[in-house]
Specification:
The chain has about 325 residues and is mainly alpha-helical. It has a single domain, classed as MetI-like fold. The protein has 15 helices and 4 strands. The strands form 2 sheets. It has a two-stranded antiparallel sheet with strand order 1-2. A hairpin with a 2-residue loop joins strand 3 and strand 4. Helix 2 packs across helix 15, helix 10 packs antiparallel against helix 11 and helix 14 runs antiparallel to helix 15. The two termini are about 30 Å apart.
């Protein structure tokens, strides 16, 4: 291939320079500055130049030194891990299902349904959070509907219940305390607490997140479905392939790039959840809805520990990269 040189190369760099400068100023420079701050002892209330070097102390507070900070960080990781495992599969499955529905040729009013399903995604997350607070209140719609369906009156305080779902299931079969094998600790949190499952309060936040994000991913799947060549579907139909065979042998394989995009964005978004937690629970009850993003806010703006907050951000970045890499390997092996 011929190389671009001379005036052509200069013109190309001139045209690219606004984007490069924008990325450098608003992305690369802030990331580099945050990484530097993570190795400093800075309260955020004084000039950054007056901060003191902290070495790896901020990371040690989170990962190695036994303290309340490490315990809170462990709780935030546990909560967010259950959040990811619950929200990402749910929103991906529902988005794909809705995309299949609104892509059906026989469906009347497809434009209306596409708009209706997408509408929650463009609504203010804080406004939706306050609506869900009323829905999940003791006298809210959720308890009213459950009371009408189930025997007895349901007066569950959803957003103030710290019991883990797995602990509740075990309690129902008579297991009230941790077995001997689960009495050890990891990062100042017992294995029994690690395996508690999402709390009732966190489950309410997960339902809200699934409802508000499904519409966006539905549009992505819809775009992928509309890019499937009709010629392949018709050829397979002529060859005698059933609708089920066409779906699993043609449609799904061609949607793998879209599936990778949806899963990647879903993982990134769920590990950054903040606004719903801030509006609905503020990390409670008993820190069972505390997430790394909310912990960053608390450490940086409430506890004046900006260095530790930056360290949390970079630990979460590594976690996101690991999840994305594993997901990429899994999807690649299935090709």
């Amino acid at each position: 291939m011929s190389r671009i040189h001379g005036r052509q190369g200069l013109a190309g760099w001139l045209f690219m320079s606004p984007a490069i400068i924008g990325l450098g100023v608003f992305m690369v420079a802030p990331i580099a500055l945050a990484l530097w701050v993570s190795f400093r002892d800075w309260s955020g209330l004084t000039p950054l130049g007056a901060s003191e070097p902290a070495g790896a102390a901020n990371y040690a507070d989170l990962l190695t030194d036994s303290s309340v900070v490490r315990g809170d960080f462990a709780k935030s990781l546990r909560n967010n891990l259950y959040y990811v495992l619950g929200v990402v599969p749910a929103q991906t499955f529902l988005a794909f299902l809705l995309a299949l529905v609104v892509n059906a040729r026989l469906l009347k009013g497809r434009t209306f349904f596409r708009t209706a399903f997408y509408f929650p995604s463009v609504t203010s997350s804080i406004a939706v959070a306050f609506i869900f607070i009323f829905l999940f209140s003791p006298t809210g719609v959720v308890n009213t509907v459950l009371s009408a369906v189930l025997p007895g009156k349901v007066d569950l305080v959803w957003l103030d219940d710290s019991d883990g779902l797995l602990h509740l299931l075990l309690r129902a079969v008579g297991v009230d305390a941790a077995p001997g094998a689960l009495r050890g600790e990891f990062m100042d949190l017992s294995w029994w607490d690690w395996l508690s499952g999402p709390s009732v309060a966190l489950s309410s936040v997960m339902i809200l997140a699934t409802w508000t994000t499904t519409g966006t991913f539905m549009l992505m799947f819809l775009a992928g479905l509309q890019n499937v060549p009709e010629e392949l579907e018709e050829a397979a139909s002529i060859d005698g392939a059933s609708p089920r065979q066409r779906f699993f042998r043609i449609t799904l394989p061609l949607l793998k790039p879209t599936l990778f995009l949806v899963l990647t964005l879903g993982i990134i978004g769920t590990w950054q959840v903040f606004d719903q937690v801030y509006a609905m629970t503020s990390g409670g009850p008993q820190k069972t809805t505390l997430t790394p993003a909310y912990l960053i806010y608390r450490e940086g703006f409430q506890n004046s520990a900006m260095g530790r907050a930056a360290a949390i951000a970079f630990v979460v970045l590594v976690i996101i990269l690991v999840f994305t890499g594993v997901q990429r390997l899994v999807l690649r092996k299935e090709r």
